[in-house]
Amino acid sequence: MNKVKILLLLCIGGLFGCQWFGSQEAKEGVPDVDSLVVKDTSAYISLEEAEDRVLALPLAKRVGKYIEMISDGKRGISYFSDAATIDDKEFYEIRIGYDSSIRFETYYILYVNRNNGNDIRIIEPVSGDIIPILDFKDDKKYDEIPE
Fold it and tell me: Superkingdom of this entry's organism (predicted)?
C-alpha cells in the first residue's frame, strides 16, 4: 500500500512539475530561433513555395518519373528541406531523391534563395561546387531505365 501511495505522489508531482516548467516564460534577451521560420515574411518566399519551384524543375520531374518506373509506380520523388547560408545569403536546402524503406537516397541537393525564388542553385555532383541551376549541365541519366 505504501508503494502505491509513493507512486501516486510521484505521478502527481510529475504532472505539476511538467506544468510548472511549461508555464515558465522565455528568458528575455534570448530569442526563440527556428531556422526555417522567418520573422519578416514580406521579402521572403515561403518554404512551400521554394519546394514547389524545385519540384517544377524539369530535372525534378525526370527524377520523379525515373523513381516511379523503377518502383513500378509504388513510389515517387521524395524531398526534405533544411536551412543553409551561402555567401551570407539565406537559402532553403532541398534534397530530392528516393525514400526507400531503409534509407533516403539523395539524387540532387538544390538551394533556393529566400529573398529571390528565381535564384536556384545545385550542387554539381562531380566537383561538389554549388552552381546556378542554369549553369548545370544535366547528363540526363534519369531518362534511361535500368534493366
Answer: Bacteria
Cβ 92 vs Cβ 122: under 8 Å: no
Place of cell 519551384: 53
Whether this prediction's pTM lies above 0.70 is answered by no
pLDDT score for 15: 61
Residue 52 identity: D
**DSSP 3-state percent helix, strand, coil across the chain (nearest 5):** 35, 25, 40
- The rounded mean pLDDT for the chain is 78
Coil, strand or helix at 21: helix
pLDDT, average across residues 76-104: 90
**Sign (positive or negative) of CA dihedral 129, 134, 137, 138:** positive
